[in-house]
Design brief:
Structural class: alpha/beta
Shape: globular
Order of helices and strands: EHEEHEHHEHEEHEEEHEEHEHH
CATH class of the domain at 5-180 and 222-245: Alpha Beta
Number of helices: 10
CATH architecture of the domain at 5-180 and 222-245: 3-Layer(aba) Sandwich
Mean pLDDT: 96
Radius of gyration: 20 Å
Helix content: 40-55%
CATH topology of the domain at 5-180 and 222-245: Rossmann fold
Low-confidence stretches: 332-336
CATH superfamily of the domain at 5-180 and 222-245: NAD(P)-binding Rossmann-like Domain
Bound molecules: nicotinamide-adenine-dinucleotide, guanosine-5'-diphosphate-alpha-D-mannose
Largest sheet: 7 strands, parallel
Oligomer: single chain
Distance between the termini: 64 Å
Number of strands: 13
């Protein structure tokens, strides 16, 4: 039997990069597609193509000959990024999602997985830190995160219509804040776990770091290994409705800082800044349906997953500092 051929879009990004490794380990032939190369390491994909999936011709090229599609490409980032560029994010992601879905259907792809987000959930259900965990059916009546969350919710429905009207097999995964090694850690798109790892790595013991908000806002965070395992299990399942993929381990942002400081071995003080973006007040995943469908749920605790994450980010911070120091040394050496 020949190997199954699968496409991972967004393979130059965080989750896509790890998913390509996961699928390669399971014997798939993998095509990775992104608008840019992976930032930190070369992709293990059998083939990696640079394409702009806002263009229909590029979507058609990407899906050609593929049995299954994991559509992870999106213009995305942490709350600072997604709340600051509604027009471009909504436009870019609308073009990518709708055209990838149509191109995959036209190419007779067998299964299409869409990476949605916890940002589809109504803001009125997330206005207290002691949030009730969010169930899949809570998404309506809708009041999603403006721009980014609205597009995710709309594309979920579009996938559902392709299933209802054309029998096209789609899978809808609502990720809750994913972290781990090789995730964006600076430049403005980083999410809270990576941003705080970076700030702690750059601080000396006894320093204060800036923490957005008052630290009482809550989230659940999912380690990347659980994320790719869950994506794969959902793709293999027969369930085509939306599914949460996250942990239900609720932590406040101040607590997140404490865990990272503990891992670093440094004494870290917090300087809260309520003028910075904060997003919803509380967000947690209800995993009942995930458990029913898969008999599985993410299980890696935050305090475990942050150990390799902090190690990788502090290594990157150190390497960057050495590079910058090296660059400064070059003229001095040349001048000698
Ligand atoms: P990421 O930014 O690391 O990866 C997304 C990739 O998509 C990037 O490499 C980017 O270059 C690529 N891309 C953007 N525009 C493109 C275009 N026009 N053509 C081709 N490629 C393009 O983000 P991620 O964390 O890996 O997220 C993957 C998916 O999961 C996204 O759809 C995102 O919305 C969703 N998601 C992620 C999280 C999370 O916590 N990481 C949470 C909710 C949803
Ligand atoms: N990014 C960031 N950087 N957030 C910080 C920082 C910091 O230095 N310090 C504290 N925070 C706080 C934010 O104010 C927010 O309240 C919380 O940490 C979480 O921020 P993010 O991780 O940036 O985003 P989010 O959880 O609000 O939303 C993210 O997760 C969604 C899925 O659950 C985003 O990445 C969305 O794009 C994603 O869909």
């Amino acid at each position: 039997m020949s190997k199954k051929s699968v496409l991972v879009t967004g393979a130059g990004g965080f989750i896509g990069f790890h998913l390509v490794n996961y699928l390669k380990d399971r014997g798939y032939w993998v095509r990775g597609v992104d608008i840019k190369d992976p930032e930190y390491q070369a992709s293990s994909a059998d083939e990696f193509r640079l394409l702009d999936l806002r263009e229909m011709d590029d979507c058609r090229e990407a899906v050609q000959g593929m049995d299954e599609v994991y559509n992870l490409a999106a213009d995305m980032g942490g709350i600072g990024y997604i709340s600051g560029a509604h027009a471009s994010i909504t436009f870019n992601n609308t073009m990518i999602s709708a055209q990838m879905l149509k191109a995959a259907y036209d190419a007779k792809v067998q299964r299409f997985l869409f990476s949605s987000s916890a940002c589809v959930y109504p803001q009125y259900l997330q206005d207290v830190p002691t949030v009730v965990p969010l169930k899949e059916d809570d998404a309506f009546p809708a009041d999603p995160e403006p721009g980014y969350g609205l597009e995710k919710l709309y594309t979920e429905k579009l996938c559902e219509y392709f299933t209802q009207d054309y029998g096209f097999q789609t899978r809808l995964v609502r990720f809750h804040n994913v972290y781990g090694p090789l995730g964006t850690w600076d430049g403005g798109k980083e999410k809270a776990p990576a941003a705080i790892c970076r700030k702690v790595a750059m601080a000396k013991s006894g320093d204060a770091i800036e923490v957005w908000g008052d630290g009482k806002q809550t989230r659940s965070f999912m380690y990347i290994d659980d994320c790719v395992e869950g994506i794969y299990r959902i793709m293999r399942s027969d369930y085509s409705g939306p599914l949460n993929l996250g942990t239900d381990e609720l932590v406040d942002v101040s607590g997140l800082v404490d865990i990272i400081a503990g891992i670093s071995g440094k004494t870290i003080h917090k300087r809260f800044n309520t003028n910075r973006p904060q997003g919803v007040r509380g967000r947690n995943s209800d995993n009942n349906r995930l458990r029913e469908v898969l008999g599985w749920e993410p299980s890696i605790h935050l305090s475990q997953g942050l150990i390799p994450t902090y190690a990788w980010i502090s290594g990157e911070v150190k390497a960057r500092a050495e590079r910058e120091a090296g660059i400064e040394h070059i003229p001095t050496i040349a001048a000698q």
